[in-house]
């Protein structure tokens, strides 16, 4: 009976996903608290960054193959590069969406934490909880700066990719391909920088997850 109730509450939580406060409340009733949700969402955001790294690298490889194309079906090579660009765009959207979800639960967690601190009557315990909140918030803010910094590098790269793909779409020949090779060199540098920035963000995520899980034990 208890298991059925838990499943029902989880189902309700999913249906109420658009109303976050109701969602968090429903999840807490089955023992899944905001701290747990936050850790899981940071993990999801980290995984989305790892996937985006791979996708941007794949897009770079296909554009390289297109620019180095020598004979054969040029349109087929273009279509492969275009597909990888589209996938990179989707991966970037997923990264942004998951970072936003981390922010949402963090705000809810910190608001709840601060409100509950005010309910602690013993001064020493109240002070310790306040210090822990400040530490967690500080670590979180460092994490978000790192995530947002990596995220900000994606739109300019996607814009450059899109420009090149649209230009090639209407002028698909060897001469046109040769004309954008200089653009590709800059794009390659930008993607290399993006991957490095994401690696730093992933490292920050791992550190934050470890600290949160250790505190919850």
TrEMBL record:
SUPFAM superfamilies: Coronavirus S2 glycoprotein. Residues 35-153 form a coiled coil. Keywords: Coiled coil, Signal. Residues 1-24 form the signal peptide. It comes from the Bacteria. This is DUF2959 domain-containing protein.
